[in-house]
Each structure stands twice: as C-alpha cells, then as structure tokens.
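Input chain follows. Return structure tokens only.
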Amino acid sequence: MLTQTSRPRRTAAVFGLAAALLVAVGVLSVLVGARPLDPGEVLAALTGRADPVVTEVVMEQRMPRTVVGLLVGAGLAVAGVLMQTLTRNPLADPRLFGVSAGASLGVVVGISVLGLTSLSQYAWLGIAGALVVGTVSYFVATAASRHADTPVTFALVGAALDASLTAVIYAILTTDVQSFDQYRFWAVGSLAGRDPSVAQGMAPFLLFGLAVAFLLARGLDALALGDDTARGLGHRLGATRAAAALAVALMTGAAVAAAGPIAFVGLVVPHLARRLVGPSHRPLIALAVLLGPVLVLGADIVGRKIVPGEAPAGVLCALIGAPLLIALVRRAKALSV
C-alpha cells in the first residue's frame, strides 16, 4: 500500500518517465524514415546550415508529421478521458459521441461533392462536421435525458448517430469509385504526407480543447461522483457537460480530420493513465497528454520500419492498443479478486 509520502514520489516518477518517452519518440520520429538522419543533420537543418534536400525533409516532412502526431495523440487521449467521464462508461471513446463519424462525413462531402483533393482543404470540413454532429448529439441527449439517465442517453444517442452517419458515408462512396479510393487511404489513419499547413490548421482547435479540459478538471471530478453529489458541491452540471462535449468535438474533429479515424488511443490511454495516477482529472488529463502522443508516434515509427512502403499509424495503433487494453483489463480483474 502506498503511503502519503510515497504516492507523490510515484506520481512524479510516472510523469518523468512519460515525459522521457515522449521526448524519445519525438526525436525518433524526426530521425527515422526512408532516409535515416542523424542528430547532427537535423540540428543543421533547424539552424539553416544543412543541405537543401535534408532541410526540406526535416522542415516540410518530418517536423510537421511529428507535430501532427503529438497533437492527434494528445487530443484523442484527452477526448477519451472526457467521454468516459461524461458517459460513466469505461469503454467509451470519442467515436461513441458521433463526432468521429461527423468528421468523416465532412471529409467525404469535401472529397465527393466538392471535389477537394488536398488534405489541408477538406480537413476544415472534417472539423465542421464534428462540431455540427457533436452539437446535435449533445442537444438531443440533453432533451431526452429529462426522462432518462443522462450518461446512458449520451451513449445511446452517440452510438445511433455514429451508425447512421457511417451508413450515409458509405452510401455516398459507393456511387463514386474515385472518391472511395481517396477516402480509404485517409480512413485507415496515417501521419504520412501531413505538411505544415495541416499542423497549423489543427493546432488552435486541439490546444483550445485541451485548455478547456484542464479548466473542467474539478467539475469532472465532481461529475464522476454522481449528479447529486456534484450538485451538492455547487457545480453546474449542464455547463460542465456542455463544455466537456465541446472540447471532445473540437479535439476529435481536428484529430480525425488531420490524421483519419485512429482507433484505440482514446480508449487505451485513459485506462493506462488512470491506473498510473488515479481518477483525479487534473493529473489524469496531464498524463494522457503525454501518453497519447507516445502511442501514436510510437505506432507511426514502428510502421515506417516493419513494412516496406510503410504501414499506417492507425493500423499499428490498433495492433498495439488491443492487446494493451486486454492486459490492463486482465490485470484489473486479477487485482480485484
């Protein structure tokens, strides 16, 4: 059993290890690729003293890809934390709210209806789709919750919207083979080919969502204790839920629009972070910000090395995340016996 003195030390050690892992995968993400680089070449590129080809690889390809991976991992992980608290469902992730399908629908409309071909063009439609669907999901669930349990209603409304929008997406794509070919490369979830404009476009939405999540930490702690307890502590449940839902929509929409619907990050990372630092949301969110990018960038790095031509990060996240989640669940059951 941890004493009052050892618990802060353990938490500090966890954060130190997570930060070290994040730095390591960030550096490797810049160094590893079809043309491996050494740290000296990267430093020379950053200071403008490298060969033009190396400078282009670092500044136009590796750095934006790494930044997108950092933002996507942090956004999906924190969105998962918020969703699990909002729905009181340990198996909830951002897709349960319908915003992932909303972002995908926005991308499909951009590709198939508007004829957009650049990720930096249709990424904005993905963010807009996530916000619209997130708003609809929230208001429908709020209206229905007057006669039903709010967490269950959120989950049911989100699942219904996700299924309906997925059907609409494939109905559109089956009539346009060319759009389907373009969509399927985005839908597997990848960081490849993300240029600086993608990173710059998504950063404000993700950073704003992360800031909202940190500001809501105390309200989320109260919400996790139940509605009656939260009201007794003086928290405004409607405002907390609305702000949390907005943060989920912003972070998930931006992440999905930029990198595709990468699975398991929003499901696995909150479980792992909760096991390491406990249920309090401030350290939980902070650790999720570190561990989410570690998973996404780690999967991306492995994908570059194990498969000729590169395996998408979304595929590797699923391959890594599924057994990790099973191990966490089995360990939790063993400790509870």
